[in-house]
Amino acid sequence: MTGLAERLEGKRICIVAGSGGVGKTTASAALALGLAASGKRVAVVTIDPARRLADSLGLEQLGNEPREVDRALLQSHGVVLHDGGELWAMMLDPKATFDDLIARLAPDDRTREDVLGNRIYAQLSSAIAGSQEFTAVAKLYELDRDGGFDAIVLDTPPSRNALDFLDAPERISDFFDSKALKLFAVPTSIATRVMSRGTSVVFAILKRLTGVDLLDDVAVLFRSLGGLIDGFRDRAAAVKALLSDPATTFLIVTSPEREPVAEAIFFRGKLREAQLPFGGLIVNRATVLHEGERGDPVAVAAQLRDRLGDALAAKVAAGFEDLRLLAARDAESIERLKAELDEPDPIVVPRLDGEVQDIEGLLALHRHLTAG
Amino acid sequence: MTGKGGVGKTTVSAALGLVAARAGQRTIVAEVARRGDVASAFDRPDAEPFQETEIAPGLFHISIDPQDALEEYLRDQLPSGPVAEILIRSRVFGLIAAATPGMRELLTVGKLWELAQLDRRTPGADAYDLVVVDAPATGHGVALLSAPRTFAAAAAAGPVARQGAIIDTTLADPEQTAVVAVATAEELAVTETGALREALQASIGLTLQRVVANALEADRFSPQEAKLLKAHADHPAVARALRGHQRALRQRAQLARLRKLTDQAPARLSLHPGGPDIEGLADELEPQLDAAT
Asked: Which residues numbered 54-93 in A keep a CB inside 8 Å of some CB on B?
């Protein structure tokens, strides 16, 4: 088995993707901890950290800028960072990041105020489809450019739709290149003059459906955003380039359950289509039988009857049967993943006792991730 | 149906749909932002996911596609067909619709609302007695439910504002809409369920109708039995049994937290080691729902 350390050799950006609830956040944190221990200056960017995990790292006020995890705290848990090793963590606030980006790209104060103060923007900017995904990669780009990190681990948003994430830069730049935005970007009188008859009909109907107020607000927002077209287009292009940079890699995390497995296969296909680099597969929380656990439940019950009595031996055997079923299901999932992802050597992490929510848990997880 | 990612919302939604269908209710399970997981759970992966398809007697399935919902809405709203077609084909309109914040959520929730109407907008479609929504995970689920309210407030006048208000009235009416949380007996999932309860109340004024604790591992051993097992932990199956017992104890503690955070006893569904089995889950769910609904 190739450990994670070898797979990440020479990589500066590691994007951890997968279905919700498979352990992406803890895998990202464990990975970052390991990289820091090996002497790298690492930032882990998460969307929604588990409160207790953040607390256990001493990061009660995890914010939109990276904060360093106290070395002494890590040391007290037996984690020694090699020379130069630093662990930083931040929680992405999509709204703040988007606001920030607009403030930075706005050509002047007035445009900035117009956008940030717009009723539609203010009420709904957090609901823009794909905005979480875009801000995640936009932030990644900034950290990579300005942060001086050797490695950045991005725990991706809990999105079912991988496309939202991979297409985010494209969609944002499509939006800023759109005819609609450009129509609004010029003074209304000129826009009316150059509008085709079809387009005027479109606006007339929109007005009837949505009412004047909404349309005006949309118009004002679009017009103000028009001033940001060039900045956004450049940023989206840079972000897109970063995703396909040779120093970037995507790790896919899944549990052995059917839906996350389907999601992992789907995401791998999307990476292939977009020609983005796939760095490896982590199958988390798998039930794995050890040597000496291959016996069948009937034999187990027979072996234990004298020691435990019939009733208790039967219960233990029933539990053992469940275990075998789980292990068989998980083995089948792993075989399917190997074939479909074209990954002969996935990293299989057995189900650990208890949830990973402190440094000890991260260390245990890290040992499994790097077992070679 | 909402809850933390990975807790089994889709299978529990399908099981709930099956319970209702068995009781003679014409039921549809609607997936949001998915690609037909419910249909695959019924071994019908080939079913056309974006159309209403019968996957078991009296049980239908659809995945909501916002673009389809938009086209259907326009065809219904605009008096003349050609005008709707102009809009649907218009790149400008498509971009504005795609770029208008919250529009996808509104269209999705509008389609869900339409599925629940006795007089269906979809030509030739029959009414359902129950629409089970396999909604996105907690935070996104609440955003989806509150989209009509947000939109109605943003659009001051016109049909969109009016319809947003109507949809919101339906969603916020406990007689018509129930929010069910699915959780596993794990700390994070339980915590998120508590947060969901508060967010629902704050954003749309709904209470959490029912909580389902999913994928519960068998809790097999009494304290005395556990003690006896400890003396025989040299046997690998006994060692496994003890680890399972420890998990069961942690699970019990989380179930108690869940009960406290939500002020109700959750319905319980067991872990199916061979993979989720919708029929079996429906059998388990059925007797537990009668009391509450």
From this structure: none
Chain B residues touching residue A199 (CB < 8 angstroms)? 90, 92
Centre a 10 Å sphere on the Cβ of residue A209 and count the other Cβ atoms it contains.
Answer: 20
Phi/psi for A249 (5° steps) reads: -140, 150
Out of A180, A201, A304, name the one closest to residue B86 (CB).
A201
Burial of residue B21 (CB within 10 Å: 0-12, 13-18, 19+) is buried
Task: Tell me what percent of chain B is helix, strand and coil, each rounded to the nearest 5.
Answer: 55, 15, 30
**Tens of pLDDT, residues A289-317:** 988 888 889 999 999 999 999 999 999 99
- Report which residue type is found at B19: V
Q: Which residue type sits at B27? A: T
User: Which residues contact residue B29 at a Cβ distance below 8 angstroms, ignoring those fewer than 6 apart?
Assistant: B13, B14, B17, B38, B59, B60, B61, B62, B132, B134
- Say what the pTM is: 0.88
Determine, for residues B156 and A211 on separate chains, whether the beta-carbon distance falls below 8 Å.
yes
* % of chain A surpassing 90 pLDDT: 43
Residues 147-206 of A with CB under 8 A from B: 158, 160-161, 175, 178-181, 183, 198-199, 201-202, 205-206
Reduced to 3 states (helix: H, G, I; strand: E, B; else coil), residue B44 is: coil
User: B-chain residues within 8 Å CB-CB of A304?
Assistant: 232, 235, 237-238
Q: What is the ipTM of this complex?
A: 0.86
Sequence-distant (≥ 6) Cβ neighbours of residue A218 within 8 angstroms: A120, B96, B100
